[in-house]
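User: My collaborator sent over this chain with a note saying "see what the structure looks like." That's all I know about it. Can you take a look?
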Amino acid sequence: MQDRTIDIKAYLDADEKKDLLRLLTAGSVDDGKSTLIGCLLYHSKKLYEDQLQALERDSKRVGNAGEHIDYALLLDGLKAEREEGITIDVAYRYFSTNQRKFIIADTPGHEQYTRNMITGGSTANLAIILVDCRTGVITQTRRHTFLVSLLGIKHIVLAVNKMDLIDFDKATFDRITDEYLELAHQLGIEDVTCFPLSALDGDNVVEKSQRTPWYEGPALLDYLETVPIHRDRNMDDFRYPVQYVLRPNLDFRGFCGKIASGSIRKGDEVMALPSMKKSHVKSIVTYEGELDEAFCPQCVTITLEDEIDISRGEMIVRPDNVPCISRHFETMLVWMDEQPMDRSKQFFLKHNTNTARATIDKVLYQVDVNTLEQRETDAFCLNEIGKVQITTAKTLFFDPYKDNKATGAFILIDPITNNTSAVGMIVSQLQMQDINQMDIPTLNLVKLGIPSEHYESIDLAVRELGRQGLEIKVIK
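Assistant: Without extra context I'll predict from the sequence alone. Here is the result:
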């Protein structure tokens, strides 16, 4: 009995240490996204008995796969999805194997649900782009690939599905993969792996199929279990947005947050932004105890050797590795709101733990997601994408999204409805000659004749306004 307890404990420890692969599926209507994910779950033996019984019953009652089990019903749970045979909302499914844990986002293929795909892919490490072998690379394939490249997803799987309908013809598979690899090269996507599949029959999904003797690669699940993702995170640039200040007693003052990128060791020299004051890491504290070193994406509490005034929204970095510090930047923007863009409106910009008021100064262009052409426009409507220039009321600390996804992304919130109006991926900091000047409001306390005994109260009020997104410069 004791030996078995040890084995169970070892199994649980090993299971806890498995890494997590987040992936999304994208493709046109009826390309088989939901069917492929359902097939992965079914053939990898990751369903409970009651789920299997319900699946078999629903396949006969409302399925669209003839005599086959309709795997898509595992994901398409909405009534409208089952009636129309399409995916409308993002469906998340979790499963694990002996090598890895997975979270799969089944995203809709329709252009009108672009924002759903952006939501599902915002945290993904890998994207599976499905193509019907009978139609090949079509307009929707190009649109989905563009969105995947926009999100900075580094690993792409091209799943050429329904190969059973063309008798697993190698020439057709080669033609489709050659066309897609050319598209990926144009968009700067480097890691693309192609699979000939039949999601309905399970060919090359969990196990290699005997019907594709010409295919020398692995099965899809084998690839998903081994694709290297540990280098996808930025481990070079230490960025630590402060979430809150922990002060349980007079002897402890720590700065809590999640390490956005990079790593930090006890004793390292750090610098606080925007004050530029330097200190050294005194300790790295977690719930389990102190650490000598911490990495992204760990949540930790950092204490410093010196007393530095740091509050929520500010950032701790290394003195020799500083992000962009600016109120002006260019960004790709995906419009998520039913209401069209109003250029006269001031939005709340949420960037990590920082919140600031922001205005859209200029719309540079809109991207036609179907043809990838750039065209002039003054504003965006729902699901439209383009490049804009943004100015914030207070300074942000950011990196270009392509270099650091954690510090290069933000959302715009409508101050009236509180809806998420847009998501943004920062391209670069604006140069001075390109900036539409909007000076920070200034309070000159000396000119206003305000006595010094009121300075502390004014500082508190200004700091609170800063937390709400309005930066004010105070001259004493």
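A starting point for your reply to your collaborator: The first strand starts at residue 20 and ends at 26.
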